[in-house]
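User: Hey, my collaborator sent me this sequence without any context and asked if I could get a structure. I don't really work with proteins. Can you help?
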Amino acid sequence: PGRPPRPPPSLAAARAGAAAPPRGAPPPPPGQDARCAAAHAWVGLGRIVYVASSRQLSQWLADWGVPPPPVRALPINEVAPGVPADGPVPELVDEVRELHHRLHHGDAH
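Assistant: No problem. I've predicted the 3D structure and written it out in structure-token form, which is a compact way to encode the shape of the chain:
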């Protein structure tokens, strides 16, 4: 009980070879990453690729004076320890930071 039924072997293999693409606009709200990582692990998808980390997002929000979210932002591997995760992606971090700034302030930074 509490665990979803196992998918057929062919579907399980296809899921394991899948990767979540880097996310773009609009950025997920704080805490969404943990839910996504948990769902990702439950259905047996492959690696997660992320552009910016929960730690980076938390620091940006603190720097901008945005109140902390009602849920704690957790690293992917703390939520889903068996799921390979690759990131951050340095060449895209500034773009994601800008998207979050616009989300919280409505202007360019």
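In plain terms: Confidence is low (pLDDT under 50) at residues 23-27. You can pass these tokens on to your collaborator as they are.
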